[in-house]
Sequence to fold (228 residues):
Amino acid sequence: MNFEFHWFMTIKQRYNGVIDYFQREMPVAESELDYRNPFELLVAVILSAQCTDKRVNLTTPALFEAYPTAEAMAQASVDEIYNYIRSISYPNNKARHLAGMSRMLVEEFGGEVPSDLKELQRLPGVGRKTANVVGAVVWQQEVMPVDTHVFRVAARIGLTRGARTPLQTELQLSRHIPSHLLPIAHHWLILHGRYVCTARSPKCEKCGLQTLCREFSAKNPAKMGVNK
Fold:
């Protein structure tokens, strides 16, 4: 791809190129959170807010052993839950969320995680992003969860323009990515942001999306004249 084509690339061409790249280079992309059922995933996603998946995965085994179901966790006090998640960021708030979430699951949903995303968002600690993650991962619902990685990567590559909020990013991505690819595209962008397009010191020289990336072309115009 030469510089002229890259610089005047249409949004459709950019999306097609990015999707083709990930389908080829990352045909399997999944959550890095450890879980065995929808309840465990929901708990893990709540804990993962502003915290690494690695830290969450170190914390949840003991938590799930103590409270393997919503019914078991609903019987626990906030302080008891806190003792298991104290190494997680914002443990006080998250302990309250887990206690309230599990009680509502028992009282209103028979202890089962609802697949309806609007119902999911009624649970304490569950916002749009968390509900979308559970829906996409567990039920392959055609939604696009937007976390900090997705928000950053989409803007840098040029998949979004002027998006100032996660919702604006979600709507733009959902408009251009085929709906059946949204669940895996969410993981493509997260994993790319986690290991390549990092917040600090992104590994641009090793990135396979150089010729498609708006930010890379803006910073390295001379390099875009070289055929890839």
About this structure: The chain has a mean pLDDT of 93. The chain has two domains: 3-30+144-225, 38-139.
